Amino acid sequence: MKHTQLVITFMAIAALAAGCKPSEEEKPKTAAEQLDKVKNETKEAAQAMKDYAFTQKEEFAATMKFQLAEINKNLDLLDAKIEKAADAAKAEAKPKIQALRDQANQLSKQLDEVKNASESAWDSVKIAARKAIDSLKGGFQQSRQWVSDKIAP
Q1: pTM above 0.90?
Q2: Pick from 69, 30, 67, 72: which is nearest to 45 by CA?
Q3: Which helix (H) or strand (E) holds 73?
Q4: Domains: count for the chain
Q5: Gap between the Cα atoms of 130 and 45, Å rounded
Q6: Residue 70: predicted pLDDT
Q7: Which of 29, 61, 82, 129 suits a disulfide with 93, CB 3.0-4.6 Å?
């Protein structure tokens, strides 16, 4: 029950924060600041995702799906930036974004397996899902940095 309230609170705060539009002075100005922001968000998410027991697999899946939804939303924003770029940059960026979308789709399938995991397979399923989300976040950060370097804001 305590963990359920924690996850619900975390999701509500994250949804509220995502819905709030920061003022110009609060927006990160450089790629380094953006990267620091993503790192901090990742640390916060990792803290919220501590070690879930088998009985908490629904909460784990909900937390992971929330993170996946945030990544997908950020991919949409990044894709919109790429659409405004020159044809050469767009041609180079599209396969990278598509690879991240494919990775996100694969993670979504893994999260469906989390819900169906048996107690004996729980640890391996949980570890695989965490590795997949970490890999996806890393790929997204690299793509965001690439876009910042190649495409003017």
Answers
A1: no
A2: 67
A3: helix 57-83
A4: 1
A5: 11
A6: 93
A7: 82
